[in-house]
Amino acid sequence: MCNKIVHTKLIQKTKLSTKYHKHHYFSVAPMLHLTDRHCRYFHRLLTKKALLYTEMITTNAIIYGKNNYLTYNEEEHPIALQLGGNEPKILANCAKMVQKAGYDEINFNIGCPSKRAQNGQFGAYLMRESSLVADCIKSMQDVVTIPITIKTRLGVDNDDSYEFLIDFIDRIVTNSQCRLFIIHARKAWLSGLNPKQNRKIPPLNYSYVYQLKKEFPQLTIIINGGIKTINEANQHLYYLDGVMIGREAYQNPQLLINVDLKIFNKNNLIINPIIAVQKMFPYIARELKKGTYLHHITKHMLGIFQSVPGACKWRRYLSTNSYKKGADISIIKKALEFIINKIDYL
């Protein structure tokens, strides 16, 4: 099995266009309200090789938002920004701003099924507007040199046939230079299901994604949806160009410690979750001085000791006390005391 995985990697490296990062081989999915800059900094400590994505940021937020939504830490590279919108000229203007900010890629969201996205006619709504999607992609490609990629679903509502998916991909490939597609292997219900339900209720259909790669061997096809372990990721990598994991990586970030070795065949200096938490201390200290609240950072670290004795007490203490006025690193150090059998990690 190991030989087969290595052989597959060598083949895939020759297939990937040079303008795409090799880090697409494994990535952490964009997750709204979750993959902010504090989360990404923590994840980057756990894996040096995986590609990290921002949460979806709309064109309106970039242009009119009170906050600077393009802010990130230099340590997060390679990092891609996921963009939501539907107006080619506005997307092009935002793309220039994203490139100037130093991001490595722009990912166009064609998968979000939320009411907000539907009302704004972006996200999964655009799966029925493939010509407009191609125009949006081309408008961005005309003004930037970083890759423009797409994250999408298998279909929407009753438009969920394989023929619908093929037609959608074909129109975009024909009318733009987009050559990398991240496919969430579920369709989206635009009515009747909320975003959380859309992540679980529509059945997974990995076979469509595999077949898509056979139909378009020249494309880079990344699979997303329902993948929970490194072993599952490696199984998909037999057939596809990359794997993206979302909720599992967020809820159980220990998974990311194994990515560099078991996916990229590279050693990782972070060998256990205790060291990962301690490595966050300098970053947290800097952020606290800037006025960042402790819980804005520690909420992303709650799952790091999943299945470890004392994990429940770690989460409870951190959740209860990180919100308090003046909360600092001493709260994290105290929470670490609840993790028993620490010698197993050192």
From TrEMBL:
It catalyses: 5,6-dihydrouridine(20a) in tRNA + NADP(+) = uridine(20a) in tRNA + NADPH + H(+); 5,6-dihydrouridine(20) in tRNA + NAD(+) = uridine(20) in tRNA + NADH + H(+); 5,6-dihydrouridine(20) in tRNA + NADP(+) = uridine(20) in tRNA + NADPH + H(+); 5,6-dihydrouridine(20a) in tRNA + NAD(+) = uridine(20a) in tRNA + NADH + H(+). Residues 28-332 form the DUS-like FMN-binding domain. It comes from the Bacteria. Its EC number is 1.3.1.91. Its cofactor is FMN. The active site is at C112 (proton donor). The record marks N109, K196, R199, R315 as: Interacts with tRNA. CDD domains: DUS_like_FMN (cd02801). GO terms for molecular function: flavin adenine dinucleotide binding; FMN binding; tRNA binding; tRNA-dihydrouridine20 synthase activity; tRNA-dihydrouridine20a synthase activity. It holds the Pfam family Dus. The keyword Repressor does not apply. Belongs to the Dus family. DusA subfamily. PANTHER family: FMN-LINKED OXIDOREDUCTASES SUPERFAMILY PROTEIN. Catalyzes the synthesis of 5,6-dihydrouridine (D), a modified base found in the D-loop of most tRNAs, via the reduction of the C5-C6 double bond in target uridines. Specifically modifies U20 and U20a in tRNAs. This is tRNA-dihydrouridine(20/20a) synthase. It comes from Candidatus Arsenophonus lipoptenae. The gene is dus.
